[in-house]
Structure prediction request, 544 residues.
Amino acid sequence: MAITDFLEKNAKLYPAETSLVEISPSNQPDHAMTWREYNLIEASSTERYRREMTWKEFDVKANRFANLLLTRGIRKGDKVAILLMNCLEWLPIYFGILKTGALAVPMNYRYTSEEIKYCLELAEVNTLIFGPEFIGRIEQAFDHLRGVKTFFYVGQGLPTFADSYDKLVQYCSSTAPAVELKDRDDAAIYFSSGTTGFPKAILHSHAALVSSCLTEQNHHSQTHRDVFLCIPPLYHTGAKMHWFGSLLSGSKAVILRGVKPEWILQAVSEEKATIVWLLVPWAQDILDAIERGELRLQNYRLDTWRLMHIGAQPVPPSLIRRWKQVFPEHQYDTNYGLSESIGPGCVHLGVENIHKVGAIGKAGYQWKTSIVNDSGEPVPQGEVGELIVSGPGVMKCYYNNPEATAAILKNGWLYTGDMARTDEDGFIYLVDRKKDVIITGGENLYPVQIEDFLRAHTGIKDVAVIGLPDDRLGEIAAAIIQLKEGVRCTEAEIQDFCLDLPRYKRPKKIIFADVPRNPTGKIEKPRLREKYCGKPLVEAQTTR
Prediction:
């Protein structure tokens, strides 16, 4: 079956029920008004604070866009790129593309004009739909986008080189196009994070997308009564595949356009959210705001919130212990995955395994895992090796890159590039990225272990450990430390705190500075290496 079948089923079963809500807190007009009262005020879609659509409207909007694309010559196998911030239009556009048999190509909203051009060419895109935030970047690249023949624009202030999505789509048929879709058909191209240079194009089938729906619901037990609060960017597999649990159960999802702690808690309170997926920095910000007295839990109705889960990066155990102290009734889960494995879920902790906090878990639903040495042979329990995974969500290939595909797909296994170990119960613990291991005086240092230790310091908000060149030892560990707001700390205090670490693991250099993260929460270590080591950004590609 195709992923679009789930949408059509929901439109028939729950036509008048809410499928999606968009909340834009920065547009809130008056804090004395409720969101639903404001929703009744006449306002343009770009000014409105809260918008929503039913499952029937969702399907109709997807059908209309699909038929618009077909009138422009889009056919099965073509590629249509999406360059939008999170908004109510995002998912109907995505499904409209899929209904034509074309491939949806979501793009990172942080891409520069050069990266936009590179990715459009790599994926052989011939149609681009974009929003107002990207006009300048598209104009910069426009003369060089020879493969892109059609531009659709979502929003006000239509540029001269594009057609208006909002005006054209309303005149198109609301009937689903007669395009046969099979589970093996190509469905989407996602891009690797690109934090270490230009990204790779990751090709996935409808079967992979469907498998992600099944995995997500198996892990988090979404029912028709659940409400999922979606905050991360929809261009990334993480947010999209967690939302697939809502798609499978026909339940409501709320797209929150903002990450301030008070906005998150207000959205949970007003929309009666039951499931919230957070990135590490956002969870940290919520706890810090509560500790500073800036957020008072009694001002919010949070009794519906049953599950908080985190992914996209290693999760510090100290953070989860703090969270459970503040929210003891919450279930906690973490999911591990890569865009190459259709996002989160190939490894899964499980809400029943809170006693294993710090582990990423075991093989997820319908997945297999192994930890191997450089020869591809399994390592003994407790030893560090590379994590490899196999399952229904593994990518078909890196599009137009057979060499990179062969390097990561071997005998049905996806080589993740992540170093890991298992404990006596078979739970997997991430140690670090294979390329991030620091070799100092012949000893292997795994930065994640040092970072987890440092995050237990009450004054530290975020930390990244990288290797700096050293004439004697080859490399030394340097800790870039971002302190909490208002906190003062010296290098000597940090070094004293590190006395509980083995001597060879103690950072030899302390740098107080901000820790950069990409939109999906991952630390941008290549940027730190460029800044502090002089290493260029273009180096071995990440599989993330």
About this structure: The two ends are 27 Å apart (CA to CA). The mean pLDDT is 89. The CA atoms of residues 192 and 199 lie 5 Å apart.
